[in-house]
Amino acid sequence: MSGTAVSRNYAAALFELAGRDGSEALYGELIQAIGAAYEESESLRHFLGAPSVGLDKKKRMVSSALGEDAPELFVRFLKVMLDRRRQGTLPGVASDYRDLLDKQAGRVRADVTLPFEADDAVRGQVLDALERRFEKKVIPEFHVDPKILGGVIIRIGDELMDASVRRQLEQLRHELV
Length: 177
Known about the structure:
Radius of gyration: 20 Å
CATH class of the largest domain: Mainly Alpha
Shape: elongated
CATH superfamily of the largest domain: N-terminal domain of the delta subunit of the F1F0-ATP synthase
Order of helices and strands: HHHHHHEHEEEH
Strand content: 5-15%
């Protein structure tokens, strides 16, 4: 899920910083972990968003939490986000950064919805078909929705391929009315 224009801009800036020394993958891992922690931890969101907590205290916490695990340039980037009160965009930045990594590597992500839990054979068939169709490496994420009755719904970026029985029935009903 892509974020806003703000998160896309921050992700692009971070990607450019990472490219200076070829650390795109490392920065990707770091921003994914931070974005996930921000989404999952109410206390972290509260701490970073609380006006009563000083900016210096927030920056010290970020520095100590990342310690020696993150490059200094990455830590400074996060501090700039805090300066500009953009910590709420961290999950979006992580998502948009992942999209930039995927584009650089020539991969696409696909949301595949089936009416049943797919076994390995079905997953393999869907993956093969998608990779032939898009001529790229595809990273599928499978979902189950029994309401589609049959068929498959695939979303890759802005493209939606809906071959579900539910859609076909709705289309038939519309034509009959």
